[in-house]
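I am still learning, so would you mind making up any protein sequence you like and the tokens describing how it folds?
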Amino acid sequence: MSDTATLATPVPGVPEDAGDGARPTQLLPLSQLARISAYWLGLTAIDAAVGLFVTNRLEFEGLVPHDDVGKSMLVIGVWAAIIGILIQPTVGYISDFTVSRWGRRKPYIVFGSLFDVVFLLGIAMGSSVLMLAGFMLLLSVSTNIARGPFQGYVPDLVAEPQVGLASGMVGLMQVVGNVTGFLLVSISVSLGVMELSLVAVAIVEVVTMASVVLRVGKGLPPKPRHGKSWTRIAREAWATDILRERSYVWLLVSRLLFLTAGSLLVNFVVIYLGRSFGMEQVQANEMYVAILVVVVLANVVAILPSSKVSDRVGRKPLIYVACVGGAVGAAIIAVTPSIPIALVGAALFGAANGTFLAVDWALMTDIIPRASAGRYMGMSNVATGSATPISIAIGGIVLDLVSGSGNDPFSPRAVFLMAVALFAVAAVTLRPVVEPRRGAGGMLEAAAAA
């Protein structure tokens, strides 16, 4: 049987009671784990590239007055966040019940990815703030249609012994995706053809999507609808029963806070270099690449060891370490007058982010009800997908308030100090999360409790 035939084949080792949420029992080949993780590269590259692209357009190309940069980022960020919050869990839960020869997740992944390409090209050609905002909001619709079901697709496929490894690979590919998006924009700025960066990132997403859809199995079978309409199912995605999963809800809050703090650092670096250090656009983007290299190396060093350690000592201790490291790194970047010292802070943040990416996804898959993975992972990815627009929104407010008070060079530093606070609160909100014990017994108890 050819690899392409896996469009219509189940994952080996799926138990007979898979519809009730049992995890697959047979280990996946490393090649399939890599393909699944690679799609995260495509999705994350979109977030990174679009965020940096729009920041460059607003800050350096005069699309809006200097004092309105933060306001423009706020408006775009708020609406993109609202769209993600509404669409992702809803479509993810609908996919739990979807019947198709491709399985319950793949049709949404294909549809969302193809429309991502269209809207990325629209952003690339946007000549005004209105056009940029319009196509960014359309992109938020399409990419969240793909993300919600894909979040549920991964738990459909991964056996419990591979959760730590899969989480580490997902984290690694998210780092590579960020690097891909940021580098494409920074290099294209230096070449004077910034628009080509979004064409390139669209190609990356299509390639990684095709690798998953054509070469990876269908996953778990759909849940029975029992005569329920699709409208009723969509409403059920927002039913209050989800609040009974207290560990899940608190982990969702902690994840949102951590990722928003990290996004504040990432999305305001170019403005930080321009306002706090007086760099022009090309110089700021070149220095951005240098900072990115430091962050990425620290990420890569931390990811796989963290995922292995978490299999032995648990996920929460590693997330606490990540919160502390992120806060210290952000504080150093915020107060230092020196770029070399800022690179030290960037390295600490990179290691913290790598640890978090390696462990948080694994903890989320440990505690969610398996049969409704699309709903729960779709809701969890609200934190992932909304972190960037929320950070742009609140960071934009701080940027304009501080700049408007006559302290323009300090305005991005104030944004980074806000990140310190968010890392601290992320650690506090992790405390109520009850982590399942490692091993088959503990995982079975968690599944029964769900």
Notes: The domain at 31-223+242-449 is CATH 1.20.1250.20 (Growth Hormone; Chain: A;). The mean pLDDT is 84.
